[in-house]
Amino acid sequence: MYYNIRLINIAYSVQIKNTITTEVMATLNSDKRSIDLSEEDYLLAKVGIDALAGAGIIHVEQEYESGTSKRVCRVATTENITLEDEQTIDTISVVNGDRVLVKDQTDPIENGLYKAVSGAAWERALDFDAEYKIKDGQMVPVASGAVGGDSLYMVNVGEPFVIDESEIAFVKMNA
After folding, report:
1. What's 29's DSSP letter?
2. Among 21, 68, 125, 139, which residue is least crowded by beta carbons within 10 Å?
3. Spans of all domains in the chain
């Protein structure tokens, strides 16, 4: 299990600052705005992280390293798309913040789970943005869409897998 920490604002007290790890501090002082920690590292830094979260400075999102299922996507693509801005996919209006299964890109390296961003390039979903979060056989449920709605897709990646270099495919598991 991994934890993703997202910064809400960078104002924090020296007292809180002294209770967290060097890795978390480096992130607080960088442009990065998020960090992935293993469960062991998270537990080592838990007191400081809890203090920062309680003060509203950071938000902790639990991520799964090798779970068998990913969080549900609003819609799945049915053709190659431009990975930016709001658009209609499989009869569904995709808006800012929607989670989308992108499975039909001309370049399969671009396939994956994305968060739609209004007026900008889409971002890979937090649970699909690093090698250790993506495993062959993981299941991705899709909620809506005329073609892909109410469906389950299986992640198909080769080994070794490298994000933004290796091909990603999704196999529909139900008709």
Report:
1. T
2. 68
3. 2-63, 75-172
